[in-house]
């Protein structure tokens, strides 16, 4: 028997400000904000929302997300440790629940002497979000290591995606389900010390070129095929371009940095100015990598 939404009032925060749950620190409120305390409660809550025809959004690390100033209606379900955060290693396979931070999955695989994920060091967010968006960089993407994904569908049903159901492309995948419950990653053995050294080198390079100490949300735009969005923006002379309390980073032009008091309207305006400038100068249409609610 499906629970009613009233059964979850103990984990409900009405009109919760979403700004404090995202890296950009902006946006309006969630009409209904839930923080489940267990995997079982999470699944039951999703099924209750589906039964009530309540729109559902899943919030992980909030690193690649911009929330409208108007906020969002329906239910926002926040994944917090320890719910969906377990990581286990069996031979060459790392199994991580969808809410586990990608940084923890990377560290655990390196510590276990398994190679492949060290290239993802410094990428924020959860492993579930990373798999859905095929997170990666110039040294490779996470999708090449994914062998199985356990999901919850928009109908509230449990399913597994394997084989032909798993296709990955640049910053995208065929996983369009509501929620990633767990991911199996097939890696290869290597010396843990060598992997650690490689990971530290990549981390130092990333720190030197990205505004990791600022309030930002990772790359705003996808790289056009064979091109660098950051380089195109920089060649338009847009580093440090400011709208309100939001600006293009002077360290990496594909990052937007926000200050206290910034609004989504500020960032939207900045995005629009950048897209128009790059289209006018290079004839290239920049597509968003950041998600918008």
UniProtKB/TrEMBL annotation:
<dbReference type="GO" id="GO:0008762">
    <property type="term" value="F:UDP-N-acetylmuramate dehydrogenase activity"/>
</dbReference>
<keyword id="KW-0274">FAD</keyword>
<feature type="domain" description="FAD-binding PCMH-type">
    <location>
        <begin position="26"/>
        <end position="190"/>
    </location>
</feature>
<dbReference type="InterPro" id="IPR016166">
    <property type="entry name" value="FAD-bd_PCMH"/>
</dbReference>
<dbReference type="GO" id="GO:0008360">
    <property type="term" value="P:regulation of cell shape"/>
</dbReference>
<comment type="pathway">
    <text>Cell wall biogenesis; peptidoglycan biosynthesis.</text>
</comment>
<dbReference type="InterPro" id="IPR011601">
    <property type="entry name" value="MurB_C"/>
</dbReference>
<feature type="active site">
    <location>
        <position position="171"/>
    </location>
</feature>
<dbReference type="GO" id="GO:0071555">
    <property type="term" value="P:cell wall organization"/>
</dbReference>
<dbReference type="GO" id="GO:0009252">
    <property type="term" value="P:peptidoglycan biosynthetic process"/>
</dbReference>
<keyword id="KW-0521">NADP</keyword>
<keyword id="KW-0132">Cell division</keyword>
<feature type="active site">
    <location>
        <position position="289"/>
    </location>
</feature>
<keyword id="KW-0285">Flavoprotein</keyword>
<dbReference type="InterPro" id="IPR016167">
    <property type="entry name" value="FAD-bd_PCMH_sub1"/>
</dbReference>
<protein>
    <recommendedName>
        <fullName>UDP-N-acetylenolpyruvoylglucosamine reductase</fullName>
        <ecNumber>1.3.1.98</ecNumber>
    </recommendedName>
</protein>
<dbReference type="GO" id="GO:0071949">
    <property type="term" value="F:FAD binding"/>
</dbReference>
<dbReference type="InterPro" id="IPR003170">
    <property type="entry name" value="MurB"/>
</dbReference>
<comment type="function">
    <text>Cell wall formation.</text>
</comment>
<comment type="similarity">
    <text>Belongs to the MurB family.</text>
</comment>
<keyword id="KW-0560">Oxidoreductase</keyword>
<keyword id="KW-0961">Cell wall biogenesis/degradation</keyword>
<feature type="active site" description="Proton donor">
    <location>
        <position position="219"/>
    </location>
</feature>
<keyword id="KW-0133">Cell shape</keyword>
<dbReference type="InterPro" id="IPR016169">
    <property type="entry name" value="FAD-bd_PCMH_sub2"/>
</dbReference>
<dbReference type="Pfam" id="PF02873">
    <property type="entry name" value="MurB_C"/>
</dbReference>
<dbReference type="InterPro" id="IPR006094">
    <property type="entry name" value="Oxid_FAD_bind_N"/>
</dbReference>
<dbReference type="InterPro" id="IPR036318">
    <property type="entry name" value="FAD-bd_PCMH-like_sf"/>
</dbReference>
<keyword id="KW-0131">Cell cycle</keyword>
<keyword id="KW-0963">Cytoplasm</keyword>
<dbReference type="InterPro" id="IPR036635">
    <property type="entry name" value="MurB_C_sf"/>
</dbReference>
<dbReference type="GO" id="GO:0005829">
    <property type="term" value="C:cytosol"/>
</dbReference>
<dbReference type="Pfam" id="PF01565">
    <property type="entry name" value="FAD_binding_4"/>
</dbReference>
<dbReference type="GO" id="GO:0051301">
    <property type="term" value="P:cell division"/>
</dbReference>
<keyword id="KW-0573">Peptidoglycan synthesis</keyword>
